Amino acid sequence: MQLLNPGFLWLSLLAIIPIALYLFRRKSKTVSVSTLVFFKTLAREHQESAWLRRLKKIVSLLLTLALLIFAILALSRMILSPVSDKGYRTVVILLDRSASMAATNDEGVSRLDQAREVIEARLDSIPEDVGVALIGYDSRPEVIQPRTLKRRELLSRLGEIAVRPVAQQTRNAIESASVLARLETPALIWHVTDSGELEELEEEPPAAAAAEAPIDPAEEGEDPLLGAKADLDLPEGVDLEKISVALESPVNVGITAFQIRPVPLEHGRFEAYVQVALNRAAPGPMVAKLDVFVGGSLVQPREVDLNPGDRVGLVLKLEGAEDQLLRLELSAEGDCLASDNEVIEPLPRSRPIVAAWVRPTVEGDPFKPDRFTQLALQAFLDDYDFEILALEPSAWPGARESVDVVIFDDYVPEEWPEELPVVLINPPGNAGPLRISRIESGLPHESVRVGNDQHPVLFRVSSGRVAITQTALFDITGSLEPLWFAGDEPLLAAGDVKGQRLVVMGFSPGRSERLPLTASFPLLIGNSLLWCAETAPGITEQLMESPTGKVVSAKGETVTWTRWENGGIKKASAKLSGGLLELDRIGIWETDTGQRGAAHLMSRAETDVSPRNPALTAADAELVTESGWLSGDISWMILALIAFLLLLESYLFHRHAVY
Q: Closest Cα to residue 275, out of 25, 600, 502?
């Protein structure tokens, strides 16, 4: 038994009045009258004993109290739980509010709006004594409304639910709904979603490693509901029913992977990897249009041919100033979902790479410093954002903390900088972890043998046209990889040794016959610096790219979101609490401390909008419980009892009235 309006129970204090009247009733008085004829007539018609008169007074009191109590229960809307074991006592509505629920039909009705209509229609079919709870979920479940019997309050909370651009995680949601449902069984879970008959997709691997092959349905996991039924043990007395609000024949293209990355060996220049996909339920091949905007200007219009289930990767070369907004916009005819069609992200900030060139100076010695190395560095600076500090060995310790990479040319310091990447040219002796032997007279080689021509240090270097003079012998240690050989001896090597990136050149550029005046030498020096500087921190901004729905750590008190909406840039601010930020929208975020990142949907499962399964359609609302005549809202029964009591009181006490 439950009361829907228990606030009226205070009226039960009115029962004090009839009880007081009964206990403190007025006693009869003896008075003188002119005649007793009238009273004798009444005595003959109401001849009754004292105990019967006392019983009538007690019955009258009880009837009065019963009328009062039943009236209060009617105002409080007393209900009784179902007496039938076949009836459900609880219905838990598990409503999908993930990104795909924003998909619209030809009339512009979203899947969430359709779900509300279906839920409201089905709620009309269940008795008011059945408790209903509401859970909304995307990547995580949220209890919107605990179990309640107040339909108006439930419908109000239902209308407040909005789609979030977040991928769905069905299993956790069903587990949470099961926990809530088993509190009062038997219970039924309504799983209202747009997931159709196709399988749920696993999330995308990192963009850089994404394949461009079509999606194989046999390798994509299971339907979230089927997986739940197979692997998730529902509590005893809890049933699960799936209600599909999917479109009959959806068409959707979307961006499923995106990443900005520096162009290898080109500091300050970037490229973007983009993957676009067409859902498997599309009726046939189609052409999607991808527009690339930098700083508000259209720079690269692309067209992509897609077959149903295809994923196509593109690499876009980007040119623009740092902090300019990069925006990708994907469109196709009949596209039903807009939240996976746009990506907005700033071009990363970068600063010049600071390199120290440490070389001894000896008057009269043309190779100290080597003028050809200086020419190669100058040629390299014309094309790249570098700052070169030419230092004497004595000045090196003071500049050690301000550089990103160091070149030791014919010099090795006594204290080896283990925290910096190093380029060694013509080393005179042992250098840090490397054992090096000097060849003072030099050993010329007409050609070199290439160990790995795909290494970034040899990018665009014509190794077959090089003739050099070897001046050092060194051992290969750690992950140091030989790139040039003279016989069996390495001349050029690159790799990581004890966590330090090194490039070792065991030759003298100035004494080599065919190297210093060729185009390969500036390329070799530049590639070495760029490759070493890749590990230096703080040169290129590492923007925090994350999928929506994730919670990231953020420093500061406020965060500002930047998004593209209605043809323009919109900004909104919010407060941070607990040092955590939930990425609940698509766009760029930046805290008041300067930390920033970007959030994108990037979900194959959400982009692959599924069609409706006829077996799961919710066109007709069905009864979900069996309720007896002694269950539910019994206000009508209480009102009937009140009427009966009034008739009974009238019959018992007023049928012999004398007028």
A: 600
